[in-house]
Amino acid sequence: MIYCVQALQLRTHHRSIRLRNIILLFLCLISLCTVGCDENTDMQLATEAGLDAVRAVTLTDKAVQRMALRSSAYADSKRRVASPTSKYAQRLQRLVGDHYQEGDLTFNYKVYLAQEVNAFAMADGTIRVYSGLMDMFTDDELRFVIGHEMGHVTQKHIHKKLRLAYASSAVRKAVAANKDTTVGEIARSGLGEFVENLMQAQFSQLEEKEADDYSLAFMKKNGYAPQAAVTALKKLASLRDGKNTLLGGLAEQYLSSHPIPGKRAERLQMQLEGKAVSIAEQKEGLWAKTKGAVVFVVNLLVGLLRWLANLL
């Protein structure tokens, strides 16, 4: 049975690869047909964009992990990373405790010494917190932010951001044929632009809610003060509303990628008061209702068929 499942998975994987290669071959043929024709420059550019779009969509999880690892290394190289003996690094170490593993994910944490009020995560489990954010937040508020970033990783929101950044950056100009092109392309063409696009890509409102829910559950599970989730978001909302113009400018990047902190604070407060539920609970409730409706309709149809059978 195990061999059958493995064989089925292998066939599915091979079909996916064949489909991708067919699309790439088709686009390459179009590109070859237009080479050397100045009047068809737009067509060539469109073909290149099509190739990049296909590659972005078909990136495997392993490719995403490799790209994330290289992107985080690049980001670290361009910023001032706090040394292990720094008060910021020691505080972060104390706050994260033993929260280094979540399923098959391994998290790694560092502090950037910068006044910006910011934090971000990468798909490989990288989480970076800026000292400006640490100066502004209490311990439990920081734990909420860390849990929030963990949520983006575990829910694979970062995978989606990475694919979008890949599709929109200068990386799309370098198309190669071998299976490990993703990392090589980034290295050769616009890694800086790619990383900036990745860090600035905005999460959707649903993704923000899911990450908030993950972090709130994380806070409760580990005995941290859940109310800190609300106060942290309210502080961010005050920056967005211009109540602190100095810090507001420093928090611009974080607020652009993590929208509507005020409404998110209200939503979490409702959950803490028992007046609202998480996205996961909403989905479970919706499924329960849908399942009940389906069972009702099926039973109704069965009864109708039996009634018709009796008539005949």
Automatic annotation (TrEMBL):
GO cellular component: membrane
Keywords on record: Hydrolase, Metal-binding, Metalloprotease, Protease, Zinc
EC number of the protein: 3.4.-.-
Single GO MF annotation: metalloendopeptidase activity
Domain of life: Bacteria
Lineage of producing organism: Bacteria, Pseudomonadati, Thermodesulfobacteriota, Desulfobulbia, Desulfobulbales
Keyword Protease: yes
Cofactor(s) this protein cannot do without: Zn(2+)
Recorded family membership: Belongs to the peptidase M48 family.
Note on how the cofactor is bound: Binds 1 zinc ion per subunit.
Organism encoding this protein: Candidatus Electrothrix aestuarii
Name listed for the protein in its UniProt record: M48 family metallopeptidase
Biological process terms in GO annotation: proteolysis involved in protein catabolic process
Pfam families hit by this protein: Peptidase_M48 (PF01435)
Domain Peptidase M48, chain residue ranges per copy: 90-269
InterPro entries: Mito/Outer_Membr_Metalloprot, Peptidase_M48
